[in-house]
Structures are given as structure tokens and as C-alpha cells.
Amino acid sequence: MSETSNTVKKDPEPVVSKDTVASVEDPTSAAVPVVDPRLLVREEGFKGYITEFKRKIKGGELGSLPVVIGLIIIWTIFQAKNDRFLSADNLSSISYFLSATGMLAIGLVFVLLLGEIDLSVGSVSGLASTVFAVFVVNHGMNEWLALVLTIVTGIGIGALHGWFFAKIGVPAFVVTLAGFLGWNGLMLWLLGDSGTINIPADSGPVHLLGQSSFFMDQAIIGAYLLAGLGVVLTAVGSFNEQRRRRAAGVPFRPTSEILIRVGLLAVASFVAAAVLNNAEGVSNALVIFLAALVVVDFVLRRTTYGRKVFAVGGGIEAARRAGISVPMVRITVFAISGGFAAIGGMFFAGQTASATLNAGGGNTLMLAIAAAVIGGTSLFGGRGSVWSALLGMLVIQSIQTGLDLLNMNTSIQYMITGAVLLGAVVIDSVSRRSQKAAGRA
């Protein structure tokens, strides 16, 4: 037999690290636990937070930073051009008129989190105001019952879009584009030759959302009550989360950080309340809009359903393998979008006390999409927050109001808003590329 055949093959020697050798030499030594880097950051104090902030920026985790900086720049420029821009009356006007389109943007955030688009929300909002007007004016229905049926109509329309998308496989773009045309046609048919149905504004939902209706009318304490309630709820929620995370043995925010966050929120809230009180107070529309943001934010961040939405947006196949019903999530997301479109339509009806041909038309759809994207929700799915609807609408409404104060043409407004939207998408794309390079996407 050859020498090669007589040679016994040996297994390769294992590579032993110094830590392994040390543990073998000293079997009584305990294993060193791995410390979560977030704990190390907080142990380093202020320096640790600066380090963590730099790491996030380099990794493309920009969050709401770009839109906040953009909003500061926009306000600074318009205030320099016209000192009435940051007046109490003008800020009150901005806060009121952003609510209607903002409601549409909330629903669109859900759809965008899936990486899809809903082009029908403008038409659905117009149809909703028309359906409400027909129920109340033409059939004498109770206004609050008509409101419920109107919202249910919007939810049903959205669910229908979602069913075609999730079950039949029709692209969401095509389904909702068909809805954009079809529901607009139905609205025109319901309005008839007059093209307008005036809605009584002395009571009911339309009065509640009207321009002259404010939270706790004639009571200056209303705005401060809202500010205090927001601060208290934030503090209670933060300390409750701290308690739960501490009990679970996972990293949690230290008390000092919570107190600083709550303190900053308190300053911002009470300053905003004081400014709005110098005008006429906080409009009911803004209060309802902010309440919707809080509720929806809780649903997305604190519930199983919200995690499913993010999971499907992050990867359909991975979500399916995890046992998530992708069709169910898709249908419900579009139903939510339709429901918020209907609510937004009622906000528009409150502004004009009527259902008209122009309801939900014009650039309403584009502004709603732009608000969600400008505010920080990714067009690629899987990343975003409902608070982007507020931030984005603040940017858009500030541009509109500022240009109106400067008596500039609407064409300039469209060009500037388009440029801001493009900038937001570019930032989102660069951010995703940076995250992939850093291994975080």
C-alpha cells in the first residue's frame, strides 16, 4: 500500500481564543456578560448621547431631524419677510387648516408603511362630505348617525380597494387610481346639477369642526388644560414603560432623561397654548387631529397589529413565514386609509359648511402624500411614524400661508412644495443607502 493510503487523516485543530484559554485555566471564573451598548451610552452621560447621535447620523438614522431643521428655516425666512407670519392669528390659522389634509395623511402613513400608495383618498374625502350632506339635507337623518355611516362608507371603500389588491393581485396603484376616478364620478352624480349642498352649521359635526368652533369656547383654560393633559400622559406613559422594561431586565430610560424630555415637552406645549390663546384658542379640529395622532401612534407602536404592519412593510416573505396574514394586513390598512379619508372629508365640510364639486379635488391628494413623505415616512415601506403627518403638514401649510402673506402666485407655492417633496425623498433614499452600508437596513 502507498504511503498516502496509510496516512491517518486528522481533524483540524480548533482555534482557541484567549478568553477560552483563560476560562479553561480557571474553571471557577464567571463568564463576562455582554452589556447592551445603549446602557453604556447612558452610563457615559451627556457624552454618551452625543456619541450615539453621531452614530445614528453616520448610519443614516436621521429620524425627524431634516424636517425639523427645514421647518425652522421656513419659519425664519417667512418671519424675516413678513413679521406677521409668527403672529398668534397666523399660527392659529396654520394649526386649523392643516387638520383636514392631515387626516388624509394619517391614513396614507399606514399605506406607505407597506411600501404602497393610495391615490383615492382625495376622491373618497369628497365623496364622504357629499354622502353626509345627502343623508342630512336630503333625507333628514340625524347628523351624528350620518357621521357614523359616512365613516363606515369610507372604511368600506378602502377595504374594497384592499381586497382587489390583496386577494385579486391588482396593483394598488391601479386599484386606487380607478377609485380616484370612480368615486369622484359618484360624488358628482350625487351632487347633481347644482354642484353644491349646503350643510346646516348650527349644530352637529359640521359645527364642531367649523372655523369659529374652539375647544372649551370662551374659556382660556382650554389650551392650558390640553397642554397639561399631554404632559401628564407623556410622563405617566414614560415611567410606566421604564417600570416594565426594568422588570423585564432590558435597557430603559433613566429617570433623569425622562424628566428632561417631559420638561421640554411641557415648555413647548404651554408656549404653544399661550400663543394660540392670544388668538382665539385651540380649534376643535386641531384637538381632534392631535387626539387621532396619539391613538394611531399607540396602535402602531404598542400593539401586535402595528408590529404586523411594520413587518409586512419590511419584508412580505419574512412576514408570511412568521405567520402573519399578509392579505389581512393589506386589506385593513387600506380600510384605515379610507376611514381617515372620510374623516378628512368631514373636516373639509366643516371648513366650508357644504359639500361641493371641489371637495377633495385639486391638489388635496398630492399634498396629503407630500405631507406623509416630507414628515419622514419612507416611500419604500417599513419605516415611518404617524407624527410625520403633523410635521409634514406644518411644513406644507407654513409654505402656503407664508406665500399668501407675501402675495405670491399659487404657481410659486406648487414649485416650492414640489422641491421640498423631492428633497425629502432624496434624503430618504440617501438615508436608506447609508443604513445598508452600515448594515442597519
Question: Topology, please?
Answer:
Layout (H helix, E strand, L loop, with lengths): L2 H4 L11 H8 L11 H7 L2 H13 L6 H17 L6 H26 L7 H18 L4 H26 L3 H20 L4 E3 L5 H5 L12 H28 L6 H23 L6 H19 L1 H11 L1 H6 L4 H27 L1 E3 L7 H11 L12 H19 L4 H28 L4
Antiparallel strand pairs: 1-2
Description:
The chain has 441 residues and is mainly α. The protein has a domain at 64-213 and 283-437: ABC transporter involved in vitamin B12 uptake, BtuC. The chain has helices spanning 3-6, 18-25, 37-43, 46-58, 65-81, 88-113, 121-138, 143-168, 172-191, 204-208, 221-248, 255-277, 284-302, 304-314, 316-321, 326-352, 364-374, 387-405, 410-437; strands at 196-198, 354-356. A two-stranded antiparallel sheet has the order 1-2. The longest helix is centred in the middle third of the chain and has 28 residues, at 221-248.
Counting DSSP H or I runs of 4 or more residues, the number of helices is 19
Estimated radius of gyration: 27 Å
Task: Assign the CATH class of the domain at 64-213 and 283-437.
Answer: Mainly Alpha
Taken from the alpha-carbon principal axes, the silhouette is globular
Query: What is the average per-residue confidence, as pLDDT, rounded to a whole number?
Result: 82
Strand/helix succession: HHHHHHHHHEHHHHHHHEHHH
Structural class comes to mainly alpha
Task: Report the major sheet.
Answer: 2 strands, antiparallel
Helix content: over 70%
Distance between the termini: 58 Å
> What is the number of E strands?
2
* CATH architecture assignment name of the domain at 64-213 and 283-437: Orthogonal Bundle
* Strand percentage: under 5%
The stretches of 5 or more residues where confidence is low (pLDDT under 50) are: 1-36
